[in-house]
């Protein structure tokens, strides 16, 4: 058993003739936080979705906690996992989406408890007790009876985090979790994520929040044009003389920050 | 037009309500199953639903009712008119409701299905607990509309011998020689029922929580 929660090996992804990911090799250590940054269209979200098997990598393998996810074997022997196998390995992963993707016909409590009841087979009261504790954890116990449409974006995203955590994943994937939020609402979501990182959750975070990546990430991965250019500590990525593509990418952020200060 | 005659019409309208409401609900159930078959990815199931929907939307309801009424005995099934009427109306409305629902199912954002998938729901569970409730909410106004259409179309089951509002009106008109007040009364009763259905529908629509906002 390695110390790696996620191992992506030679992962490539094509949509028709468009190559989105080129031979990505990446490892995420257990208990660590990796932040994926890069310009839009660089393939960072696609990589995250390939790890979760929401997109199928054209080639390569993904190991989650030592077990293959999505495809088994490589090269000629590569075949899709059975749905039951897939669900079993995937149950180790919790996923948080840019658009929250809460189910609009269920309350916050319903969203968090639904899979506990339907997938884990808990009784209603057991599932709701547990869901309530998760909502409390993200500071939303009082909003348990609210529907997503009655919650702010930041609150919706925290419910979505609680929904994922309720299933006891060992890995959490975040796909631009604050990109759909008003700037004043990103803080509450980032602080929940910070707390989660401090508790030792393995996390992969696709983000535009460079500050978060630098302060919370144990590793920062920089993607450009479908290639993984760096996957290293924030110090190494941000402080040494930088590779021109990264420099250019960071400059646009600094410019934007500077523009906001004016 | 006496109270006695009017009360006979009211009584018969209960049969109209009974046949229509059962047919709407049974039809809805069939429509959901049809939608599931259609979305299963299985070509044979997809083809079967296509044929079903084309047939029941393309053949006049009156002809369908007469077909079923005459076909069942050939198959060795002798059912009361009420059952035959419900079968005919249910199958017909199911085809229309399946088409209505299609728009709803297509409108369920992909992300909501992905989040269900990541939460461990099987495709069938996702269909039952996520897709269907959302599709139903999105197409609820069309469902109310269909309920009103079926309430009116139920007058056609008078052709297979069921004594509902229209048939009762015809019978009374023939025996009293007062067709005008009797058919006018029947019309008023249909209108009143449908106004109530439309009103209830709007109230229910407002009470239904949360549609996807995107």
From TrEMBL, chain A:
UniProtKB keywords: Amino-acid transport, ATP-binding, Cell membrane, Membrane, Nucleotide-binding, Transport
Family matches, as PROSITE patterns: ABC_TRANSPORTER_1, ABC_TRANSPORTER_2
Subcellular location: Cell membrane
Keyword ATP-binding: yes
SUPFAM superfamilies xrefs: P-loop containing nucleoside triphosphate hydrolases
Chain ranges passing through the membrane: none
Gene Ontology MF term list: ABC-type amino acid transporter activity; ATP binding; ATP hydrolysis activity
Gene3D superfamilies to which the protein is assigned, alphabetical: P-loop containing nucleotide triphosphate hydrolases
A Gene Ontology cellular-component term: plasma membrane
Membrane topology, from the record: Peripheral membrane protein
Residue span, ABC transporter domain: 6-250
UniProt family annotation: Belongs to the ABC transporter superfamily.
Protein name, UniProt field: ATP-binding protein
The organism of origin for this protein: Salipiger pallidus
UniProtKB/TrEMBL annotation, chain B:
Residues of the ABC transmembrane type-1 domain: 9-201
InterPro entries linked: AA_ABC_transptr_permease_3TM, ArtM/GltK/GlnP/TcyL/YhdX-like, MetI-like, MetI-like_sf
UniProt keyword annotations, A-Z: Amino-acid transport, Cell membrane, Membrane, Transmembrane, Transmembrane helix, Transport
The UniProt record lists the keyword Ubl conjugation: no
Record carries keyword ATP-binding: no
CDD domains for this protein: TM_PBP2
This protein's GO CC annotations: ATP-binding cassette (ABC) transporter complex
Superkingdom assignment: Bacteria
Membrane topology, from the record: Multi-pass membrane protein
One biological process term in Gene Ontology: amino acid transport
SUPFAM superfamilies hit by this protein: MetI-like (SSF161098)
Transmembrane segments: 12-34, 46-69, 75-96, 140-162, 182-201
Pfam families: BPD_transp_1 (PF00528)
Coiled coil: none
Similarity section: Belongs to the binding-protein-dependent transport system permease family. HisMQ subfamily.
NCBIfam families according to UniProt: HEQRo_perm_3TM
Protein name as annotated: Amino acid ABC transporter
């Amino acid at each position: 058993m390695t110390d790696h929660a996620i191992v992506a090996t030679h992962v490539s992804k094509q949509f028709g003739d468009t190559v989105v990911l080129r031979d990505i090799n990446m490892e995420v250590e257990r208990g660590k936080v990796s932040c994926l940054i890069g310009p839009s269209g660089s393939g960072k979200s696609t990589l995250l979705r390939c790890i979760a098997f929401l997109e199928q990598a054209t080639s390569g393998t993904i190991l989650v906690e030592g077990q293959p996810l999505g495809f088994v074997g490589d090269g000629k022997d590569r075949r899709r996992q059975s749905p039951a196998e897939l669900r079993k390995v995937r149950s180790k992963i919790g996923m948080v989406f840019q658009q929250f993707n809460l189910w609009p016909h269920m309350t916050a409590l319903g969203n968090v408890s639904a899979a506990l009841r339907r997938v884990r087979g808990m009784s209603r009261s057991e599932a709701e007790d547990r869901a309530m504790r998760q909502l409390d954890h993200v500071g939303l116990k009082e909003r348990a009876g609210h529907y997503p449409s009655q919650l702010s974006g930041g609150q919706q995203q925290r419910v979505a985090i609680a929904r994922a955590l309720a299933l006891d994943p060992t890995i959490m994937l975040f796909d631009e979790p604050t990109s759909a939020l008003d700037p004043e609402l990103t803080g509450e979501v980032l602080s929940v994520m910070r707390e989660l990182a401090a508790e030792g959750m393995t996390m992969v975070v696709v983000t535009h929040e460079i500050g978060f990546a630098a302060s919370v990430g144990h590793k920062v991965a920089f993607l450009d044009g479908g290639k993984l250019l760096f996957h290293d500590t924030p110090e190494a990525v941000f402080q040494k003389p930088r590779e021109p593509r990264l420099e250019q990418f960071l400059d646009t952020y600094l410019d934007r920050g500077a523009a906001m200060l004016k | 037009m006496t109270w006695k005659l009017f009360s006979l019409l009211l009584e018969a309208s209960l049969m109209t309500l009974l046949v229509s409401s059962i047919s709407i609900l049974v039809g809805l159930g069939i429509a959901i199953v049809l939608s599931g078959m259609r979305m299963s990815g299985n070509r044979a199931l997809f083809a079967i639903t296509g044929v079903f929907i084309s047939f029941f939307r393309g053949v006049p309801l009156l002809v369908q009712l007469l077909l079923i009424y005459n076909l069942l005995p050939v198959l060795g099934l002798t059912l009361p008119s009420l059952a035959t009427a419900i079968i005919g109306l249910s199958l017909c409305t199911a085809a229309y409701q399946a088409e209505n629902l299609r728009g709803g199912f297509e409108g369920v954002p992909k992300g909501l299905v992905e989040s269900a998938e990541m939460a461990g729901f099987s495709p069938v569970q996702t269909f039952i607990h996520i897709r269907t409730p959302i599709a139903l909410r999105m197409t609820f106004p069309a469902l109310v509309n269909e309920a009103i259409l079926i309430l009116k179309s139920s007058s056609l089951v008078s052709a297979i011998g069921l004594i509902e509002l229209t048939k009762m009106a015809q019978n009374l008109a023939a025996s009293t020689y007062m067709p005008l007040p009797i058919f006018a009364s029947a019309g008023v009763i249909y209108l009143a029922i449908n106004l109530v259905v439309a009103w209830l529908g709007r109230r229910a629509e407002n009470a239904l929580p949360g549609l996807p906002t995107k």
